[in-house]
Inverse folding.
């Protein structure tokens, strides 16, 4: 295993490599990668933190836990609420900021504040040829040249290995509250969630969990955050508008959204888990179509129905784990599906990522050729099977 302690050492290791490298930080997402492990956790540490400017510069191998601790001392946080995969994937280790941003991991608050990529101000990374590249800066107005910051987010280490990141952070709000309503079906609940998002009440979380993922009967959750008086007013108005059996506040509310963020209701059950991005307006129709095709599943709908976590029932988790049916229906409805958890046999024959249209795949292949002409950085991970 390779474990560089500096950016210069990382560049030298990549230049010297003559075989595939499996890039990893905390190794919490359980992705099977060929090649020699290149561990980035040696590239850790807070390089610069300016609470007044809401700016953080940090080594890519820095654990999320360490960043959260430093920010909390100043009543600040990473607003994009990154998922912790360990419960769902039954993995060990510590998630790192490089892994989170390379995969563009964004939690329930994305509907309000944007994705991880929207909070990245600058990056330093090493390409597959061993060249060190810097792009962006420490302020939001730095937009000169090509936006490699956004390109690196979601590239899963196939274009370069992150060594340092500049991020904008956010003050922790004074209060939060979650409106809970039980017993709704998916279609009704998603309609309520999208209606809540269309109000002026600045909703920061909108999710529905089906009966098997909640206490039974399905559970709709709507979150608001901010000053205590504002949260009380907005939650009361939303309850009047959409109904609520219960309003959870403070830590009780936070626990509910950690469940949604980390998909913990699916953690202790066997089988394949898919992550589906689509339009909220067709989420219920899409899930209904899967059921009609014999793909029995449980669902957690986040982002007001735009993000669907599907846990396949045992009888549906055969052959290709529903891949053909899921992706065929998405071709009809719109969206894409990512294979998050599966057994090795399924992994070997099902592409992790949704195949792209030929024109987009040509662009993606061209980018991989430009940044990693030797194809040694996580080879095959994002390329078609």
């Amino acid at each position: 295993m390779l474990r560089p302690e500096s950016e210069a050492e990382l560049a030298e290791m990549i230049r010297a490599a003559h075989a595939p490298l499996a890039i990893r930080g905390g190794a919490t997402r359980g992705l099977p990668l060929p090649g020699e492990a290149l561990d980035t956790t040696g590239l850790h540490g807070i390089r610069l933190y300016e609470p007044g400017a809401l700016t953080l510069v940090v080594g890519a191998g820095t654990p999320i836990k360490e960043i959260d601790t430093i920010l909390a001392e100043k009543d600040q946080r990473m607003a994009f609420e990154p998922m912790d995969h360990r419960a769902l994937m039954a993995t060990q280790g510590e998630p790192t900021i490089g892994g989170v941003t390379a995969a563009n991991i964004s939690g329930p608050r994305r509907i309000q504040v944007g994705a991880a990529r929207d909070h990245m101000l600058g990056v330093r990374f090493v390409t597959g040829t061993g060249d060190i590249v810097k792009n962006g800066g420490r302020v939001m107005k730095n937009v000169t040249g090509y936006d490699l910051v956004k390109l690196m987010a979601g590239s899963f280490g196939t274009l370069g290995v992150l060594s340092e990141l500049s991020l904008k952070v956010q003050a922790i709000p004074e209060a939060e509250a979650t409106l809970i309503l039980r017993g709704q079906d998916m279609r009704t609940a998603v309609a309520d969630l999208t209606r809540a998002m269309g109000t002026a009440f600045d909703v920061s979380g909108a999710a529905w969990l089906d009966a098997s993922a909640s206490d039974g009967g399905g559970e709709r959750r709507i979150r608001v955050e901010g000053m205590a008086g504002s949260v009380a007013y907005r939650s009361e108005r939303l309850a009047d508008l959409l109904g609520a059996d219960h309003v959870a506040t403070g830590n009780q509310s936070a626990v509910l959204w950690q469940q949604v963020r980390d998909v913990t209701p699916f953690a202790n059950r066997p089988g394949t888990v898919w992550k589906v991005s689509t339009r909220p307006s067709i989420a219920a129709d899409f899930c209904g179509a899967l059921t009609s095709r014999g793909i029995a599943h449980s669902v957690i709908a986040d982002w007001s129905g735009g993000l669907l976590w599907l846990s396949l029932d045992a009888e549906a988790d055969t052959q290709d784990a529903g891949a053909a049916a899921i992706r065929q229906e998405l071709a009809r409805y719109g969206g894409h599906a990512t294979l998050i958890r599966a057994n090795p046999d399924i992994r070997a024959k099902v592409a992790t990522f949704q195949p792209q249209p030929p024109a987009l795949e040509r662009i993606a292949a061209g980018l991989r050729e430009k940044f990693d002409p030797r194809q040694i950085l996580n080879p095959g991970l994002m390329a078609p099977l």
